[in-house]
Request: fold
Amino acid sequence: MRRYSAFAIAREAARYHSGWERAWASPEPKSEYDVIIVGAGGHGLATAYYLGKNFGITNVAIIEKGWLGGGNTGRNTTIIRSNYLQDPSAAIYEKARSLYETMSQDLNYNVMFSPRGVMMLAQTEHEIRGYQRTAHANALQGVATEFIGPEKVKELCPIIELKGPRYPVLGALWQPRGGTARHDAVAWGYARACSDMGMHIIQKCEVTGVHRENGKVTGVETTKGRIGCKKLGMVVAGNASALADMAGFRIPLESVALQALVSEPIKPCMDVVIMANTVHGYMSQSDKGEMVIGGGTDGFNNYTQRGSFHHIEETVRALVETFPMISRLKMLRQWGGIVDVTGDRSPIIGKTPLGNTFINCGWGTGGFKAIPGSGWAFAETIAKGEPGELAAPFGMDRFIEGRFIDESVAAGVAH
Amino acid sequence: MLILTCPNCGIAADETELSAGGEAHLTRFGAGSSDADFENYLFMRKNARGVHFERWRHSYGCGKWFHAARCTTTLEVFGTYPAQTTEPPAELIEKIKQKCPDFEGFSK
Reply:
């Protein structure tokens, strides 16, 4: 792999950019791999990357039914934060956030990580108490957050309306090192690094069946034929239930649609990420100038990658209240993704009833921010056959034990 | 917009008038049941990619619960039926089978 650098740009400029090579190879599948990862989204690619980087396992295939990063990795609002209440969540999301800090250097690929700060507005007395509690919990967990008053909110985000018609802004939970990153670049950067380690990224290859023998998986049936494996990792988000069904077990989650939209580009007006959970909306400004907007999920099971129109209306209405200056902005694009939501709104990382098969799913409405931490923890789980410290609390067995990691209040909306 | 006809009051209701209630026809397990049964009842869901039988409540209408059969990949609604049943009516299953040749029928 030729490294990207200022020197490389100068070199290519001198020869009409004829020397850029493809970022990753597209090989035909081999008959067998040590590890197959199903799903070439951010989480799957990060898993493969850390399998190679941390454990030296490079005989790996990442197979993807669509195109690389075309699922939720390319459909989210790119927010990165780790201000969670529960210790296991804070640990894995903070691991992810800290990996984002150096990702561009690690991958030699500019993922445009922008730690511009994330602010979660408190708009009710209850929310003030909740966020103050989270700020104290974060202090104990080593996650840098603070609870700030309305004056500081206005100072950090001048376009905000503090005295909205329904809910005044009473304060906010502020994480200065949260922010955004370029979502596609995260997938592309990992893919390039994986391909460089000799891993096979196989796109447009749908898994249609899972071969089992004596309680173990021996391979997967795909639209490109049978591919054998010694270990299997399932990282398919909204389609996790369908894949688990092929492998003969059930998982405790449901797939629902989550939507996002962006406005026409405008001049820079907002250099933080704002989440308003009481009124259901969140917004940031992309480097292109578009306002990137997200809201809540639909209530019903859905695999269509499009959501209900009235949810867009609710989200936009909430944000116009909070930011009156956006009221005349035109919206350019709207899209949906299928998110996999568990009972306690926390992910599942760990073992399955099949000995050599592992699952990473249930990231629900908040997966993008977790990509590097999730990959790190899941790679360890696959390599060692047992979850490590980060992944251990997220096993599927927590549902039978009643040992929930209950983030449902925080994640009911705006994750 | 999803439109479901409430079998209780007969109104064709927009989804803004309704609340989704999740998978239908779950077998309830309570105190005294095994851990596995209780977990199954509380958390495990078919999350079907295709035909899905589900509960809805006509919250901003008559307020009553009912059932619906809907495809989760096309959002096509096959029909609605009253809540007072433990499985979908046979004629509805027949109708779905004619529309979706892959549908294997209702199972618990």
Observations:
- The mean pLDDT of chain A is 95.
- Chain A touches chain B at residues 239, 241-242, 250-255, 298-304, 308-310, 342-343, 399-400 (CB under 8 Å).
- The two ends of chain A are 36 Å apart (CA to CA).
